[in-house]
Design brief:
With 418 residues, this protein is an alpha/beta fold. It folds into two domains: 116 residues, no CATH class; 212 residues. It contains five helices and 34 strands. The chain has a twelve-stranded parallel β-sheet with strand order 1-2-5-9-12-15-18-21-24-27-30-33. Strands 3, 6, 7, 10, 13, 16, 19, 22, 25, 28 and 31 form an eleven-stranded mixed β-sheet that branches. It has an eleven-stranded parallel β-sheet with strand order 4-8-11-14-17-20-23-26-29-32-34. Strand 1, helix 2 and strand 2 form a beta-alpha-beta unit. Helix 1 crosses helix 5. The radius of gyration is 26 Å and the shape is globular. The chain starts with 5 loop residues before the first helix and ends with a helix.
Length: 418
């Protein structure tokens, strides 16, 4: 065989290299297609379906608020005595002054109204000894106008009811929570100011049909939390100078084991850099100082029209329960909740000076300070945020086809385990 001339050898080697490159590109394309089109397992609890969010029992009577008598409570009188004589539809009107103890409301359609006269309010003071300011178990409960201070557990809480309204309250140093509806439906929390609690100012848990709007929260570990709940609107709130502005969580070990469809719209999350002062065993202790919004395992959360400024660790973090085995463990029988955050959409928000000095816990978890953080867990999540800083540097957007989103997420996860 005659030796190849120089030009022929060059042409031959070029063809070989191009063939190899073509084969490699083909393998890569096939791999990407395989990763993108390989079915995603359903994210369902491994240990059962679990319970639904919302009030466990529907009301047996209609909403009668405002249809009855007005029972006036003056300073020196007992609020509880007035509540005890009320029937559905009555309003207990509390005049400005100082009151003590816990109020239990077990009648439906009761309105507990604190009268506001200038700077003067009816003030319910637990003196650092009582657990709850107001505990309501009647449907269609409204509380408005009161100042509630110095309790060890909750300012005002409802359990298993439909239609509670929390409006125009001032809550200070009320323990773990200021407003705490749980296992409730059709919840409205609006126009309140809350500070100084060691968990969350406005917490709604295991509930359905929620509106939290026009509230201010400061000086708390968490300003607002939506936990194991469905169909929530968090709108036009001002959450500032807390450890974290807002939490959207789904956690194991609860009665209700679903969490989806939260809309977070037109809020301000500013300077949430307060040192976390919750107890170590509390889930909120996971939140690093300097967090604007933290989404944990929840699905179909939409975040839009908000302003995130001055949050030193990050503006928005999207993570999963499974990212924290040291806290939640790795149960042998599986999780009792869907753990993978799916279908969340973050778009058209404003970011100003976030992630400038991240908490050491953020760095030790493998992140950097940025506007947007993702632990690479979950599919169908989209970020449409021009100009925002991010980690990883590339995040899927709405322009990505679904197969490419899935392939990218899988590649990131494989790289993380190398």
């Amino acid at each position: 065989m005659l030796p190849l001339r120089h030009s022929e050898a060059y042409t031959y080697m070029k063809k070989v290299v191009l063939s190899v490159v073509g084969i490699l590109l083909g393998v890569i394309v096939i791999a990407v297609l395989a990763l993108g089109f390989w079915p995603v397992p359903a994210d369902v609890p491994a240990v059962g379906v679990g319970g639904k969010a919302g009030a466990p029992n529907p009301p047996s009577a209609p909403d009668q608020r405002g249809a009855g008598r007005i029972i006036v409570v003056n300073p020196g009188d007992s609020i509880q005595a007035a509540v005890d004589q009320a029937v559905p539809g009555d309003t207990v009107r509390v005049m400005p002054g100082l009151y003590h103890g816990t109020v239990l409301v077990d009648v439906d359609s009761l309105t507990l109204e604190g009268v506001v006269e200038g700077d003067q309010r009816a003030t319910l003071d637990g003196q650092g000894q009582e657990a709850n300011g107001v505990l309501a178990i009647g449907n269609y409960f409204t509380i408005t106008g009161l100042r509630i201070i110095n309790y060890t557990s909750n300012g005002v809480t409802t359990q298993g009811v439909t239609g509670p309204i929390f409006r125009n309250l001032v809550l200070e140093d009320t323990g773990e929570y200021a407003v705490f509806p749980i296992l409730s439906s059709d919840v409205l929390v609006e126009n309140n100011v809350a500070s100084g609690v060691n968990d969350t100012a406005y917490y709604v848990g295991q509930s359905r049909g929620i509106v939290v709007r026009n509230n201010e929260a400061f000086g708390n570990v968490s300003g607002i939390e939506i936990e194991n709940s469905v169909d929530a609107l968090v709108e036009n709130n001002y959450s500032h100078d807390n450890t974290v502005g807002l939490l959207v969580f789904i956690l194991p070990g609860k009665t209700a084991t679903e969490g989806s469809n939260t809309r977070i719209v037109n809020n301000r999350f500013e300077n949430n850099n307060l040192a976390n002062f919750s107890r170590p065993e509390m889930t909120v202790n996971l939140a690093p100082d300097g967090s604007g919004l933290l989404i944990l395992s929840a699905d179909t959360t939409e975040v839009t029209g908000n302003t995130f400024s001055g949050n030193k660790s990050f503006a928005i973090g999207l993570v999963a329960v499974t990212d924290f085995p040291e806290f939640f463990g790795e149960p042998e029988s599986g999780w009792d909740i869907p753990v993978i955050p799916e279908g969340n959409w973050i778009h058209d928000n404003v970011y100003i000076n976030n992630g400038y000095d991240p908490d050491p816990e953020v760095i030790s978890a493998g992140f950097i300070g940025a506007d947007l953080l993702w632990s690479t867990t979950g599919t169908g999540n989209r970020w449409d945020e021009a100009g925002a800083t991010r980690f990883p540097p590339l995040l899927p957007s709405s322009s990505w086809p679904g197969f490419l989103q899935r392939a990218y997420q899988r590649v990131l996860n494989m790289a993380a385990h190398l």
